[in-house]
Amino acid sequence: MNTKTKIQKFGGVLTNMVLPNIGAFIAWGFITALFIPTGWLPNERLNEMVSPMLTYVLPLLVAYTGGEMFGGKRGAVLAVVSTLGCIAGSDVTMFLGAMILGPVSGWLIKRADAALEGKVPAGFEMVVNNFSIGIIGLAMAILSYYFFGPAITGVTNALQNCIQFFVDRSLLPLLSLFNEPAKVLFINNAISQGIYSPLGLQDAVANGTGSSLYFMTDSNPGPGLGLLLAYFFFSKRKAAKKSAPTAAIIHFFGGIHEMYFPYVFMKPIMIVPMILGGMGGIITAQLFQAALIAQPSPGSVFAVLALTPKGKFAANILWIAVGTLITFVTAAFIFKVTEKDEIDDEGDTALAEAKKQVQKAKHGVVADAPKTLQDLKKEEIHLIVFACDAGMGSSAMADTVIKKKLKAEGLSVEVRHSNLEAIPAEADLVICHTNLKDRAHKNAPDKAILPVSSYLDAPEYEELIAFLKG
Asked: How far apart are CA 378 and CA 465, in angstroms?
């Protein structure tokens, strides 16, 4: 497994712990924005919910989800007990502890159950099951209180000090040099949910406003919009130019930032406008003191406006507008300089790579290459699963696209969407983005995989329809 795949897998774990609980995070953000002393509707009694939710409810939800991912319901219960010890032994918000102890607790209970399997006398199963969680939970809670809590406090403070270093020296925009390339490598959720969201929550409480600039560090929908608009107005690539408006609408209003990733792959130098747009947006946010009350997820303009605190609407809109304008102008200049004639999109990096990998697999060039669509018979395909990093954004959208295409052709095949770590065992064909194919194959090595170059109007969809029609 190469470094990029490892980071993507790690990001997938973080994402799948946090995203199912995003509604609770947003609820906390609304309660904070409304009822703190500087909120829209200050209320001393209702304001008492803010601190307990941040300290206990949100970290324990994340821990529960992580424990369930790795150890089912028993892992989830153990994760809550373990994380509570961490919370009690620390004076910082324990999201990092929850993200570590959740999976660890799930793994531990799974190993313990495997070790006890076949060794429990008949009739004592329930007693052993309950006491195993109790005993391991006691040990983990004590260990978390005395070790994990203080250790994670130190790590959190060090991370905050590192980012504060950039803030104090007005260098926060330089984080875009890391944020933007990481996004298009599908590590965006790991950064957003694993780093900036916890820091934003802590900063929102520390500064007393219930809002933070950290929530805006990597969530600006403006640069992606600027890139897609530049493709529409200035690109000579026929297919890309045609699909860019639809991608822009889904990206900007739907909040699915993955929509613009293939457009960067088509022309890698476009990472430069994205970085400059991100930097410009952060500089604008700093100058005009922009802020959000929670991490926008999905990162749509509607989510941004809904999470904007009182008095910050003009600053937040300007943050988006500047990011859009800088990326658009820079990308337009690159198109003018580098593209003189119309380009056949068959030469696009993403499309070419997808086809090359499929051909390699078909001819046995890669020893452990996944099965392809051509390895199946149309009668064998009863369930198609579209998988993405979180299983809630791009895969859900593509799920809808495929269903419409199948219905239009009168084809009756079940379609679902899933995250890469939980591809259903009954799936007959897994569809994912080209850059996620290796992870899909690792998580479902016995499944046929159809990599696609784009989430909208991918040529592979037509190939699938033709195959199913025989």
From this structure: 10
Give residue-wise pLDDT tens across range 371-399. 888 888 878 888 999 888 766 667 777 88
| Confidence check: pLDDT of 100 > 70 | yes
Mark whether 432 is an active-site residue: no
Nearest residue to 186 (alpha-carbon basis) of 426, 306, 15:
15
β-strand partners of 216:
none
The pLDDT tens digits of the residues spanning 449-469 come to 988 877 777 788 888 888 888
Residue 276 carries which side chain, given as an amino acid letter?
L
Q: Is the pTM of this model over 0.70?
A: no
